[in-house]
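Changelog entry: the Phage head morphogenesis domain-containing protein record was regenerated in this release. Current contents:
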Amino acid sequence: MKLTEKQAIAIAQAIYGKQDERVKQIEQLYKNTQSNVIDMIAAFIANNSNWNGKANPDEIANFLSNLKDTFSNAGKDDQATIKAAFKGNQLKTNGDVLIAKITQAFVKQMVAQKLQLSVSTKNIPDVVNSKNYKSAQKKINTYNRQSKRSMNIDSTLQRTARNAVLDRHVDSDMFSSINKQTLQTIRKVRDVAERAAKSPKDSLNWQREVADILTGGNKATNGQMGRAAGMIRTATAQALNRTRLEKLKSDKVKKYKFVSLEAPNTCQDCADLDGNVYDVADAEEGVNFPLMHYNCQCTVIEANEDDDWDTSNHDVSEELDSL
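Regenerated structure tokens:
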């Protein structure tokens, strides 16, 4: 598939740039988890629950039933992470149950995040190998809908969690990073929850603390949500650009043009590379081929041997359709 620079940028934006539905989905997932966790802690405080009071047996049974269902549908890697998350978490007191429920909320978030990452990356090679730009656009719209459905953590799609796999073009440690991020978040939020529940009068800012951890509150970093968004952008960008390089080589294309999306947050290194033409044989990720860095939003297009212009057919109808 030969693309104009404008078309290449549009595809990149649709997959991992400013128009990326996946980023919106992951951000909504974290916001929903944040609201859920805050509601749990607030209800505990409002009910004047005794942290050390004996837990309700029915509540314990209901929790365990739900957790076992999640655990049985998880893959071995996720099961190990779930065990680590609940290590030392007994279910004797009201406080124990609150901590367990908070932990479970993050476990479900982890499952949904991995499913989304799997769904989001596995179809990108199909987009890259489309016959033309219009076909690629249709595929992206279809796959975005599939990705959105994968974010329903209480749906039957959760049962496919054990089969969640990354596209081979994506760094294999992405899932491990999600595991680590989940465990770190659980430890931080459980500490805030315990302090808030035990001394509510002295913990008036606990909601802000939870928000700072999960979504960054009013901070520019967006907390763990920002890291998760960067991860999905990076994974999808890896799948797109690494597949494209394979395609350039298999089609025996000799040259490519480096294209920066030139967003407000584009780094100087990427901006300096924009428009440069390189030999496909000399392409090296991080040197003259994207990704140049984590969360990079650059891409490439095929270029003529004699100059830095692309070899698209410049289909007039497609150009008009984009208006």
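The first strand starts at residue 255 and ends at 259.
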